[in-house]
Target: Phosphotransferase
Amino acid sequence: MSKISPSTRWTSFGGWDYNGMKERLEGLLAKLDKGVLVQHAKLIKGKKFTMSEPFSAGQYWICFEMIAEDGSLIIARVRLPRHPDTLPTVSEADELYSIACEVSTMRFVRQKLPAVVVPRVYAYEGPGSRRATDAGAIYMLLEGFYGNTLHDVVQDLCNLPVAKQEQIMAQWTTVQASLATLAYPLIGSISSITETGEPVINKLSTAAAEGLTSPGPFSDAVEYFTALGEAALCRVKLTDTNLPHFRKL
Model:
């Protein structure tokens, strides 16, 4: 695999100077103690780490790359302040629940499907954590990988030769088929994992964001899609009562 580190492509503030997004990043960076992240990585791996200057920012997280003496990578993923476009129906508790579900799901899939490449979650420091308090934000430490992404190689898959497109689709299908083997009697989100390694399935982590009146878990697909349809209908009624009748159906 190519030894291209993730931070090689990172542009820090690039593309974020709009609608107060840059200031949102600056606000977090001003209070973030990166030393806490580096020290935590050292405790986990037993090696010294150095942190990259460039960072990668998204709508909800900011990532820093840490490289150990032996070249191994840890990505520090730090939560940004609440997004200004977050729906008022989504509470802080909803956001934290969603994060916990994401962490549990990554750990569960990695445990059950070793052939599917999922980064190891070395640590998640949530609200109330001493390390999160010392760092200035909640964060997680993830296994990093060398190499580049498909998007780095080609912007539009349609520009690839047909044989390459088929190869990529076959790989995607293989991953999807593997994930489909994790079938359980309830439709919801994995909120935690039992001591025996089984998933605890609770309400959907996206329920509040999607406006579901019933957050789940659901016993079957009919219940699930009914909830989605009812939420979509409610959004239409709230956003525009003058839509043509056929668009409301």
Q: What stands out?
A: The CA atoms of residues 8 and 60 lie 21 Å apart. The longest strand covers residues 61-68. The beta strands are 49-51, 56-57, 61-68, 73-79, 121-125, 139-143, 189-193, 199-202. The chain has nine helices and eight strands.
